[in-house]
Amino acid sequence: MGFFDFFKKKPDPIQEMRDKMFNQMFPKGDKDILAATNQLLTILNHSIPLNEAKAIITKSYIICLLASEKDKFDKERLKLHLSGYCIQYFDEKQLDEFYNYIMAINSARIFQEVRHRK
Questions:
Q1: What is the DSSP string of 79-101?
Q2: At what angle do helices 30-43 and 92-117 cross, to 10 degrees?
Q3: Mean pLDDT across 12-35
Q4: Which helix (H) or strand (E) is 37 found in, with range?
Q5: Taking the domains of the chain in order of start, what are their residue ranges?
Q6: Interhelix angle for 13-25 vs 50-70, to 10°?
């Protein structure tokens, strides 16, 4: 350990955990995030700004991952999450489509994890 290593900034465990989760959720980084954001914009008929759609998809997918680990993630859980800040953008059909999309990308993630373990 060199003298200047003492002054090196220590890694932030919360930031490391967040980075790991984002890499797990979106392995291709911004490309995956943009694709998911565009899909949500399509579901909502481009009725909201891009940045808002990006925030909704990332927060909703995080809730999906966390809820899936503890118990289950269903449409009612998604609705509860969205009711805190953006449920007004969704009608029932759009909510169904969004839920199905989140479940599809989560299933693809699980499939990739299982495939890489073998």
A1: HHHHHTTTGGG--HHHHHHHHHH
A2: 150
A3: 86
A4: helix 30-43
A5: 28-117
A6: 100
- The sign of the torsion formed by the CA atoms of 73, 43, 47, 22 equals positive
Instruction: Provide the token pair at 110.
Output: 């699980």
| Identity of the amino acid at 55 | A
* Residue 3 DSSP code: G
Amino acid present at 13 = P
Residue 81: count other Cβ atoms within 10 Å of its Cβ: 19
pTM (2 d.p.): 0.82
Mean pLDDT of all residues in the chain? 88
32-85 tens-digit pLDDT: 999 999 999 999 999 999 999 999 999 999 999 888 777 789 999 999 999 999
Is the Cα torsion angle 69, 75, 76, 80 positive or negative in sign? positive
